[in-house]
């Protein structure tokens, strides 16, 4: 008796500007739970369904667009909502309208706005946002954000950026 062990073949497909990508410099890459590929660049966000792209960019006169075109991180929370961290604010994607809700950061020690968000990571049903001014906990059900002060050592043993 001969046993044959089959390993699944990985398939790769190169996508570039010629295929519809807005820019070849990718700053963030994320595959959501439905299999869609979210591609962040310095020139906006692209959603790829395997055959075509849908592009999202900042329009300064429209508050329902991205807060900035420079995408830093992409995250899907426990409620399957897509969050996009940019150089100028955090954005929540609305699946029904294909629009965004903007959130801006604040340093709770200096009360100055710091809108550069550098990383988003899940923790239980909430998520941690790392911004220039420090750490925030974001509550996905209430869309509220609270600073993490003097408790980093309790929850974080290893942070990878």
Description of the molecule:
By secondary structure, this protein is mainly β. The protein has a single domain, classed as YVTN repeat-like/Quinoprotein amine dehydrogenase (Methylamine Dehydrogenase, Chain H, 7 Propeller). It contains 1 helix and 12 strands; from the N terminus they run E-E-E-E-E-E-E-E-E-E-E-E-H. The chain has a 4-stranded antiparallel sheet with strand order 1-2-3-4, with no helix packed on it. The longest helix is centred in the last third of the chain and has 4 residues. About 8% of the residues have low confidence.
CATH architecture identity? 7 Propeller
Strand percentage lies at 35-45%
Write the CATH fold name.
Answer: Methylamine Dehydrogenase, Chain H
By secondary-structure content and strand pairing, the structural class works out as mainly beta
Let me know the average pLDDT.
78
Oligomer: single chain
Low-confidence stretches: 107-113, 153-158
Order of H and E elements: EEEEEEEEEEEEH
| DSSP summary, beta strand count | 12
Number of helices: 1
Q: What Rg, in angstroms, do the CA atoms define?
A: 18 Å
